[in-house]
Amino acid sequence: MASVAVDRERRVWSLSTAHTTYALHATGHGTLVQLHWGARLTLDEAAGLAGRAYTIAPYNLPLDIEEQLPIDGGLRWGVPSLQVTFPGGVRSLELTLVADEMTPGVESAQLDLVLADTHYPLEVVLHYRVREATDVVERWVTLRHTGARPGHIAVHRADSGNWLLPELAAYRYSAVFGAWSAENQLVREPLPQGEFTLGSRHGITGHHANPWVMLDDGTATEERGEVWGVALAWSGTWRLTAQRRFENRVSVTAGFGHDGVTWRLRPGEELTTPPVLGLWTDGGFGAASRAWHAHARRHVLPAAGEVRPVLYNSWEAVAFDVDEAGQLEIARKAADLGVELFVMDDGWFGSRVNSSAGLGDWWPNPDRFPAGLGRLADEVRRLGMGFGVWVEPEMVNPDSDLYRAHPDWVLHYPHRRRDELRTQLVLNFAREDVREWAFGWLDKLVGDHGIDFLKWDMNRAFSQAGWPAREQDGDGVGDQDRLWIDHTRNVYAVMDRLRADHPALRIESCAGGGGRVDFGMLARTDEVWTSDNTDAFHRQSIQHGFGQVYPPGVMAAWVTDAARAPLAYRFHVAMAGALGVGGNLHAWSSTDLAEARRLVAAYKNIRTTIQHGEQYRLGSEPGRGLSAVQYVYGDQVAVLLYHPHPGVRPAPGALRLQGLAPAGLYEEHSEAGGLRATGRVLATAGLPLDHRLPTGDWGSALIRLRRVG
User: Binding of substrate: at which residues (predicted)?
Assistant: First the structure.
């Protein structure tokens, strides 16, 4: 179903997925504009749009936001997607289309449009790709300095693509905002006039926003309505801007780097931007989420076919009080619960007995692990679990052997202080020597001990982000800003090499909680730490926002001792993703341990459905009345119900399910037991809740159904 086609007479290119078409047109002046992004059209239908009049701005000027990549140059005053300065201080682009290349295929189809500046040696290639079994359109850009003479081109802005919405009666955006311990708080509000910008200047994706936005006309619901989404696959600093013009048109441009960062291209060099992804659906926000999830599982995740194991992490039990005997003691308790992966957290290495020292010295603490990690790893595996460890390769404590040997390896400027945060400084991963050092010790750690899992943390944002060694390079022009991009690229490179050399290794992305979650990071990790906030009630809204774009199978969710809610409720919230346990098992009663053992077993019965199934959000907003998350995978159905605080009004007596075969017969498999009903009945009359959901505060339940006819 993925295809690309061209009508050369009308200069129209069309990319189609199973349900959608993205079409663009080269005008008589050579400007590339978007014709259509929405329901699937034939090539002839798409090409017919080329004859229509474009939206006209004042003075009869074309509207620059209709362009595929609005440039800084000519009669344009909107947000530029591409902005450069040529030698001599010329800060104006004039591009013309010089070639196109289409690459059809069974699994994917690609279109490359080559533009060149009319005078200066700059080539700009706009890349487009569509793939099988997804309605996502991928776009990215390559900039090439095609000159031979000395001299650089300064790139101030290089977005991956600009996306135009059709004219709508109104515009509403959906996005997530937050902070550390409060990530992914969903906001759905009218899009303001002017420029609405999301972004990060932190060096990572960030806690404060995430690089995606959805737009609709203000009437879309979970079940119906047109929704357009844009998501950037990048894990460093970024900017996404939605422009709402007076002419009632809206576009979204997105790319890596934040304003003020400049990249220099020298002769023969090129710069390729990360992918920006676009998705249209007419099935509402629920269908949009399911389409994003399906795309991630089919085309992004490195081991998407696996089910994530139930893990235990030792941090909350012991904090920095880590030694071999203590880890083995709690590992035995975890194994008894049915845990499949044991992860030792911070405090196992160097002089790391608290947060102020040892970070960067990645060898087992000889006092705590006199025999190294081998004996602990072997015993954990003998208990039937995989073995994982916490690492933070991008950080260093000033009180460490590494920093004393290489103080120049951190981000810094001359004559400026080096501000510490969490008593840490940031290593400059853009440096090749730092990258190779990191790969070397990680490769040895994983190889020597058969490590199954790395919890890769990154706990602080960039500050004093200088690279003095790059102040003058080659032609005497500084290029320190490249660290903002190359740091992330080298993190990717280390992860990619580790996975290639150790195919069984699995990685979790963590950044002080959910600070580095995006499709770029998901392309090389298996799960992400959603938030340091493990309170089950707070986690419901955090997980609700997370699931708008990212699939539940990558959402690490722990049961901990943040205990305002009873144990069953905490488990039911954590079951909505990749289940983990992080509580202090030494303090759990025999009753708690028995209940946990039962709930872990129950999760294993449904985890394939949860991690690989289609997700439906039902009922009220999480935490406000009765809410539920339903998953459908083949003939299996799992429903997680939550009713934390009953109000004065009675709760609904039934819950309408979705995604079921109308004529299919479904049978309940749970302690409540006994229900047999067709999908049509469960979607209209609903699933009765009377004896299935406990009354009083913190009511929760797991309901399992199976199609039997």
Answer: 180, 345-346, 422, 455-459, 510, 532
457 is in an annotated binding site: yes
Q: Of 257, 279, 300, which residue constitutes the final position of a domain?
A: 300
Q: Which of residues 256, 282, 300 is at a domain's end?
A: 300
- Interior/surface letters 303-341, b for 16+ CB within 10 angstroms, e for the rest: ebeeebbbbbbbbbbbeeebbbebbeebbebbbebbbbb
Closest CA to 113 of 229, 1, 33: 33
Q: How many domains does the chain have?
A: 2
Bridge partners, 678 (sequence order) = 665
In this structure, the dihedral spanned by the alpha carbons of residues 654, 659, 665 and 670, taken in order and rounded to 10 degrees, is -60
> Cα–Cα distance between 436 and 442 in angstroms, integer?
10
H helix or E strand, kind and range, residue 705 = strand 699-707
381: enclosing H helix or E strand: helix 374-382
Residue 652 has a pLDDT of: 84
pLDDT score recorded for residue 459? 95
Judged against a pLDDT cut of 80, whether residue 596 lies above it is answered with: yes
Consult the annotation and say whether 532 binds a ligand: yes
**Domain annotation covers residue 232:** yes
In a domain, 469, yes or no: no
Q: Is 510 annotated as a binding residue?
A: yes
Q: Is 7 a catalytic residue?
A: no
For residues 180 and 532, the answer to whether their CB atoms sit within 8 Å is yes
Indicate if 532 belongs to the active site. yes
Q: Show the tokens assigned to 91.
A: 């800060």
Backbone Cα Rg of the chain: 27
Q: Evaluate whether residue 665 is within a structural domain.
A: yes
Catalytic residue from among 401, 532, 535, 592 = 532
Residue 328 lies in a domain: no
Check whether 345 is labelled as a binding-site residue.
yes
* pLDDT at residue 475 is higher than 60: no
Instruction: Please tell me which residue in 135, 457, 486, 518 is annotated as part of the active site.
Output: 457
Give the domain extent around 98.
Answer: 3-300
Residue 240 bridge partners (DSSP): 198, 254
Binning pLDDT at 50, 70 and 90, where does residue 701 land? very high
Strands 108-117 and 453-456: unpaired
Q: Which two tokens stand for residue 568?
A: 């069953």
